[in-house]
Amino acid sequence: MSLWDRIDKLDRRWIFLLVGIAVIIPLFVNMEAEISITPEARQLFEAVDALPNDSSIVLVTFDLYAFSLAETEPMARAALHHLFSKNIRVVTVTTIPLGGPSIAERVTREVAAEYGKTYGVDFVNLGYKPNYVSVLRGMGTDIRSIYPTDNSGTVLDSLPLMNEVFNYDDLDFIFVTADNGIVDFWISIVQAQYGIPVGAGVTAVMAPKQYAYVGSGQMTGLLGGMKGAAEYELLVERADLGVKGMAIQSLIHFLIIALIAVGNIAYFISLRRKRRGQA
Amino acid sequence: MTVFEIWLGAFLTLAIFSFLYRDNPVYRLAESAFAGISAGYYIGLIWESVIVQFLWVPMTNPENPKVWLVIPLFLGLLMFARLFSGTALGKYVWLSRIGLAFVMGSTAGVFLMSELHGNVLGQMFGTMQVQSAQGEPAVLLTIIVAVGVIATLIYFYFSKEHTGALGVTAKVGIWFIMISFGAHFGYTVMGRISLLIGRVYFLWNDWLGSFLF
To answer: Which terminal CB of chain A, N or C, has fewer other CB atoms within 10 Å?
Structure first.
């Protein structure tokens, strides 16, 4: 059996091992990747940056499961850093039951603590309610009809921030972080029918579809995957896991491109040999 | 996170990764634990946030009891009639369709409007307008979008055989679809690698870092 035949029949676990090694190596070696800012990420940053300081209120959604935290948490953190640094008040919400409420609580409180923000005054976590279509529509009429209390069971009227927020009309921007199709409904229900600007940070798997919304002007800026998170981190000058992760990403992308090339060459060489053998 | 939580997280992460070598009991333990805990958590969450907060509390409010909530409660209970299947009460299974019909009807109504506003009209307007250019020639972008949309739509037109001009346009449509698949695949690779990076960071920093350095 020739080298190419062996490569053609290579046990895929060797590829898993190679990818694993490629992820681990940068942990020992200080690597940096050059990250360019895409127009979509800059558009989102500029939209948030243009909001009036102190008086604005932004809804940040944590429509994400725990599995996608590597991509979505850096985006949410960078967004919260941007908002809190501008003294913009934040209301968080989630349409995902498994992880969403607790992730929103943890991430928002950690970032808010850095800026000395007070719960109830500067930020509120509404938590989760099932049936996202009813939630998104109901919040347009009266947030209290969907969320009588916040995530901890506190009645909304007892929270000073919520005395200024009754429906979408009281929000200046919606910053969606999502790892699933719910972002489509933030566009088709909330942006399209209530006219409030929506920007999004989504997982890489979802990103290609969302570019259509940016192109049509329905979405105000987009962050796609870890690259998008890294871009926003650079824009708000808070480099974190997104920026660190992109160095590893670049290394693995080179590895995968090389594997695709070698795999295809091996396949075609094996195919040619088989044809010659048959002839 | 507490030390116990970190060690539990590390054990479950490694248990799931062990599937990359081959299926094994440790992987199945982690998988089953995830499925069971998720189901239990979800039931508890729905019970508290829906049954208690939206049904029991408003219905039993002594000042202003919302008695009409008996109707959705009744419709919801009818859903359980599906469980009669295969039992002596099997002939009453159809009752579940009443609640289901209500859900389907209301959902169709809501989705009709949202799809029309968000995906049909919004995307049609976006396709018709001149594409915003950020350094690139706007006219070229607009032509590419227009050709791409028309050619892809023609590829999915199956009422006439794809020959002649129709066939050529359909082939152009396939090229656009393939480029789209390529973009999706590239992003999917990036997404999956990101998840791996997140887990490796957790194992390296939070777990190994807690006792090695």
So the answer is: C
Quick check: A230 pLDDT over 90?
A: yes
**What is the model's pLDDT at position A178?**
94
Kindly report, residue by residue over A177-213, the tens digit of the pLDDT: 999 889 999 999 999 889 999 999 999 999 999 998 9
Residue B137: band (very low, low, confident or very high) from pLDDT cuts 50, 70, 90:
low
- Looking at residue A199, the DSSP 8-state letter turns out to be E
CA distance A47 to chain B (A): 16
Number of H helices, E strands in chain B: 9, 0
Distance in angstroms between the alpha carbons of the first and the last residue of chain A: 19
**Count of Cβ atoms closer than 10 Å to residue B138 Cβ:** 12
B2 touches chain A (CB under 8 A): no
Residue A42: CB partners within 8 Å, gap ≥ 6? A221, A231, A235
Cβ-based neighbour number of residue A234 at 10 Å? 19
Q: B122 and A68 in contact by Cβ < 8 A?
A: no
Compute CA distances B159 → B65, B149, B151, B177, whole Å.
Answer: 58, 18, 15, 20
Q: B194 in helix, strand or coil? A: helix
Nearest to A144 by CA among B58, B33, B6, B44: B58
Residue A227 and residue B197: Cα distance in Å, rounded?
13
B157: DSSP letter: -
Q: What is the phi-psi region of residue A87: left when phi exceeds 0, alpha when psi lies from -120 to 50, beta otherwise?
A: left
Domain A39-239: assigned CATH number? 3.40.50.10160
The answer to whether residue B115 scores a pLDDT higher than 80 is yes
Mean pLDDT of B119-123: 87
Query: Closest residue of A to B43, CA-based?
Result: A97
Q: At what angle do helices A207-215 and B164-201 cross, to 10 degrees?
A: 120
Closest in A130, A218, A256 to B189, CB measured: A256
Looking at chain A, the number of H-run helices and the number of E-run strands are 12, 6
Among A58-67, A76-85, A239-248, B16-25, which stretch is predicted with the lowest mean pLDDT? A239-248
Report the pLDDT averaged over residues A37-50.
95
B46, B188, B199: residue with CB nearest A130: B46
pLDDT at B133 over 80: no
Cut 0.90: pTM above it = no
* Domain range list for chain A: 3-30+246-278, 39-239
Give the pLDDT confidence of A124-138 residue by residue, as tens digits. Answer: 999 998 888 889 989
Task: With CB atoms and an 8 Å threshold, state whether B118 touches A218.
Answer: yes
Backbone φ and ψ for B88, nearest 5 degrees, come out as -65, -20
- Per CB-CB distance under 8 Å, the chain A contacts of B119 are 184, 188
